[in-house]
Structures are given as structure tokens and as C-alpha cells.
Write a structure and sequence with these properties.
By secondary structure, the protein is α/β, with parallel strands linked by helices. It contains twelve helices and nine strands. Strand 6 and strand 7 form a beta hairpin. The protein starts with a strand and ends with a helix.
Length: 292
């Protein structure tokens, strides 16, 4: 049974947003919760807002600050260490929930699920308007290992709740991943035998921010390579699927990085060609290796 939820917030320069997230926790129909906030080295009004909130609610609220920036994976790992509830629910500092979020998660967990995914409503903060809404893909429940390996199906950590006993089996977030650290963790939950469930309602609002340009695109491409290199030996997934996935992301990274680092581009494209030989892959390598 999931009685107390540990609501886990990793914060970095979150002073502009976190009050709304906290107010959505206060409004929960399920009132047996604690809040744990780990600030990742930033210094703004976040601590003051959290402490004011703590003084205004009867539930436990804890706050820590690393003092230095260690990354979101380290912050989430520390949150899991501090969690004392029967279940954990992540909430990004700029997202928020409807009042039914924890109540719906509890229903699914009590019914036998160990990992619950809420439906979400994307929200454009700059324009102050809703965007698309999303329900979890059925593939996430029929074959969570393959679906999470193939695609990042969980759009935000704020829509996730799971048994703390599952977290104990899975361990810490992978701090070597700057992006995809959450997808990596959900995949490891699936590999640990988690039973995934849809909570059946839109209970999570996911804030969308303006995206940065090429540097962000390159980082995503590089981190997709890192993710698929990590799981190249995962025997649960067919070898041809693993090789093609890594080859695809190496090719994409090699194409994007060519203007900045020709050597890195050649290396990535050559590795892609070895993993999944094809004429298009060979031509991409030739263009990177030979053409100006």
C-alpha cells in the first residue's frame, strides 16, 4: 500500500517557478506526503520560498543545497536517499499537478502497479497557454524495456510515481548522463521488473521553455550516443535493434558536429558505418573525411 508519498524536487535557479509547484502539492486531495527539495548549487530565493512553505503546512518539508552544481542526476539521487515515504513522486520545480495527482497514483500503486505514469498537459510558460496533451503510449505498458530503449516515452519526470522499494532495487541515477538520465532510470526500473500503469487522468502540467539552438541540439545528439553505447550489450533487446539504434545516433551526431570538429565527425561516422554498413552511411563518412 502507498500511504505516504515523498514528493521530490530537484531545483536549480528555480525561484521564479517553485512556489506554484509547492502550492500544487498543498492542494493535493491525498494529504499524506512529505516534500524534499535538493537545490543543485544555485543561490536565489528558492530556499526562502521552501522554508516559508514548510512553515505553512503540517507535513514534513526538507531542504538541502549542494553548494556546487553537480547536475540533475546527482540531485535526484540525493532526493531518493532522503525520501522516507512508501512511494516517491518527482516534481520538476517549474511543473505542477492537479489536486488529484497523488490520489490517482495511489490508486494504481494500491492495485498492484509499481511504476505509475500520469497523463500530461504541456504548457507554454512564455505565452501562458496550454499546448498539446499526452497520454502514455500503450507500448510503455506492453513492453516497457523495448519501448524505453527505443524512445523517450515518459515526457517529464513530473508525471512519474513509483514504489520506494523499487527505487531501492534500482539505485542511483547515472551521473555520467547529462541528458536521458531520467529515461535511463525508467529503463532500469523496467529491467528490474517494474509493473507500469497509466493513472488514467491528466494530472500533470509540463512547462515548456524556449529551446536553445545548436549547442543544445549537439548535446542531445551526443547524449543519445552515450545512452545507446551504455546499452549496446543489453541482451534483452535484439542485437540488430541495438546496433542500428547506436549507428543512427552516431550518424546524426557526426553530421551535426562536422562544422565544429571534423575529427569527431569522422570518428562517429566511421563507427556508425561499422555497426550498420550501408551505402548512405559510407557516403556520409566520405563527405566528412574527404570533402571540405
Amino acid at each position: 500500500m502507498a500511504n505516504r508519498f515523498s514528493v521530490l524536487i530537484a531545483a536549480y535557479k528555480a525561484g521564479r517557478y517553485i512556489a506554484k509547484a509547492l502550492e500544487s502539492i498543498r492542494a493535493q486531495a491525498h494529504t499524506d506526503w512529505e516534500v524534499v527539495v535538493v537545490e543543485d548549487g544555485s543561490r536565489d530565493e528558492t530556499e526562502e520560498i521552501v522554508r516559508r512553505f514548510a512553515a505553512s503546512v503540517p507535513q514534513p518539508v526538507r531542504y538541502e543545497n549542494f553548494g556546487v552544481n553537480r547536475g540533475v542526476a546527482a540531485a535526484r539521487s540525493r532526493l531518493l536517499e532522503l525520501a522516507a515515504g512508501d512511494a516517491v513522486a518527482f516534481l520538476d520545480a517549474d511543473d505542477w499537478w492537479t489536486s488529484a495527482h497523488l490520489e490517482q497514483a495511489k490508486k494504481s500503486l494500491d492495485a498492484g502497479a509499481s511504476f505509475v505514469v500520469a497523463r500530461i498537459q504541456e504548457y507554454d510558460l512564455a505565452a501562458a497557454r496550454p499546448l498539446q496533451s499526452y497520454s502514455p503510449s500503450p507500448a510503455l505498458f506492453s513492453d516497457p524495456v523495448l519501448s524505453l530503449f527505443t524512445s523517450s516515452l515518459v515526457r517529464t519526470s513530473s508525471c512519474v510515481a513509483f514504489q520506494r522499494a523499487l527505487a531501492a532495487r534500482v539505485g542511483a541515477f547515472d551521473a555520467s548522463l547529462r541528458i536521458n538520465e531520467d529515461r535511463d532510470y525508467w529503463l532500469r526500473c523496467a529491467l528490474a521488473g517494474a509493473q507500469f500503469a497509466d493513472n488514467g487522468e491528466i494530472t500533470c502540467f509540463y512547462a515548456k521553455h524556449a529551446a536553445s539552438a545548436m549547442a543544445h541540439t549537439l548535446l542531445w545528439a551526443q547524449q543519445e550516443v552515450a545512452f545507446h553505447e551504455k546499452y549496446l550489450a543489453l541482451s534483452t533487446i535484439p542485437l540488430v535493434v541495438r546496433r542500428r539504434a547506436l549507428a543512427h545516433h552516431l550518424s546524426n551526431y557526426g553530421r551535426l558536429v562536422r562544422a565544429q570538429d571534423r575529427a569527431a565527425s569522422r570518428h562517429a561516422l566511421a563507427k556508425s558505418l561499422r555497426l550498420a554498413p550501408s551505402l548512405p552511411a559510407f557516403l556520409r563518412w566520405v563527405r566528412s573525411a574527404v570533402l571540405p
